[in-house]
Amino acid sequence: MVLAACVLASSMAFIDGTALPVALPRLRADLSADLALVQWILNGYTLALASLTLIGGALADVYGKAHMLAVGCVLFGLASAACALAPSPEWLIAARVIQGAAAAIVTPASLALIGATYARAERNWAISLWAAASALTTAGGPVLGGWLTETLGWPSVFWINPPLALIAVGVLMVFASKDGGMQRRFDLIGAAILASALGALAWALSQVGSSEAGATADAPVQTGTALGIVTGLGMGGLAVYAFWERRSEYPMTPPRLLVNHTFVGLNVATLMIYAGISIMFFLLPFDLIDRRALSSTRAGMAFLPFTLGVGLLSGVFGRLADKIGARAMLVAGPAGAALAYFWMAFSHEDSMILGVIGPMTLLGLSFAVLVAPLTASVLSSVDPTDEGLASGINNAASRIAQLAGAALAAGFASFGSGYEVGLAIAAAASIGGALTAAITPTPAAPKSGGSSSG
CA–CA separation, 171 vs 191, rounded Å? Predict the structure, then answer.
């Protein structure tokens, strides 16, 4: 029941993220919003989520995983109701930012609660079910969003969430064991510095990704300048954060995490792997619609082999990881993804079956192998008192990697061979992730089963 509550809570964010885009044309007309405001309806959520996810994980450790998950669900439900009742684009953007902040609590808290509830012998399996449900709800979002928008109007997309939030909170209140968290103060100053640094980094990356610099002859210079600004903002802010954390009595990111080679290595692998897949996700829709002349609906269906592969096979590989350990899968998953990107690049001129469906099927299989063992290994690499923070750091790493990958893809997408070059870079990033996982010490496979009370 706790696993069901975690799946239900996190599914709100995944459904909302994929159901809303298909409602944007109707929403824009009803609210008389221009394209810039419509873009911020999406970006406001993404920026809040990317900049606050790590903080949400730390809050789960300090104040209790089940408690913070319930708080996040309530906040997400209330923000969703505010979105549905929005009388203006500005109101909707503000409510979407609150939604993103709530999702930054829900996602790491749900994963940390799964880690606290299940013993290591069953953790891969439990997280694989979470990942499978996330993939399937992500795939179903556009269909559900389109039907609701056409039948009941765009506000109905947001009215999905309050009932789900209430059910999840009710299940947590009845079935989740009490978790008082850690007896220490929360590092408010450190959290503010970190949120500002990650927010600036995420904003700059989103600006590069949405720019049209590639349409000009000065694209390389403009892209390089923007990425230089990104590096300066990110490194400067993170340097200030590191300076503060060394002097804080209650550091939000304990130094012990930085000397944990397993934890650091797995997060470096996460950065590489998710940067690679974000490049592909950015480039492929343009190729399908602009070059292959597919409709938006048919282009969206091209992603189903990936989504269904993760959704239907994650549980199988999660069970296998519980038996044999994670290392082989942490190497095989990104290696298979790299092969899929190379296949897609070399089959650019081939049919849809050979050039898209085949490699997307391989990519779905590869990520089904990878996702649960990677997440479970991150949680298992730290003490139980740090699982919320570990989940938050890993989620933040994947969000920043996705923004960075989209920004890189936007920089060379307009060039003649941008598609092939982008996929080659995605493959190189995935190979880097596989090599990093190969040399990173990972938690050993548990020898006995059973679940804990958390």
Answer: 30
Distance between CA atoms of residues 454 and 336, nearest Å: 35
Read off the pLDDT of each residue in 29-56 and give the average, rounded to a whole number.
81
In this structure, are residues 401 and 117 in contact, taking their beta carbons and an 8 Å threshold? no
Q: Are 195 and 55 in contact (CB under 8 A)?
A: yes
The rounded Cα 218 to chain-centroid distance in angstroms is: 32
pLDDT in tens, 65-115: 999 999 999 999 999 999 999 999 999 999 999 999 999 999 899 988 998
Q: Output the DSSP codes for 70-121.
A: HHHHHHHHHHHHHHHT-SSHHHHHHHHHHHHHHHHHHHHHHHHHHHHHS-HH
Q: Which residues contact 192 (CB under 8 A, 6 or more apart)?
A: none
Structure tokens at 29: 């007309």
Longest dimension (CA), the chain: 61
In this prediction the pTM is 0.78
Angstrom distances, CA of residue 438 to CA of 223, 260, 262, 382: 33, 16, 11, 19
| Residue 379: pLDDT over 60 | yes
**Gyration radius of the chain over CA positions:** 21
- For residue 140, how many other CB atoms are within 10 A of its CB? 17
CB 229 within 8 A of CB 204: yes
Contact 374, 322 (CB under 8 A): no
Q: In angstroms, rounded to a whole number, what is the distance separating the alpha carbons of residues 81 and 94?
A: 12
Identify residue 43 by its one-letter amino acid code: N
Q: What spatial distance separates the first Cα and last Cα of the chain, rounded to whole Å?
A: 13
Tell me which residue of 26, 44, 110 sits closest to 71, measured CA to CA.
Answer: 110
Does 43 have pLDDT greater than 50? yes
Which candidate, 104, 108, 126, places its Cα nearest to that of 117? 126
Reported as a single tens digit per residue, the pLDDT across 255-277 is 788 889 999 999 999 999 999 99
Strands (DSSP E) contained in 164-275 are none
Q: At which residue do the structure tokens 């849809």 appear?
A: 352
* DSSP one-letter code for 440: S
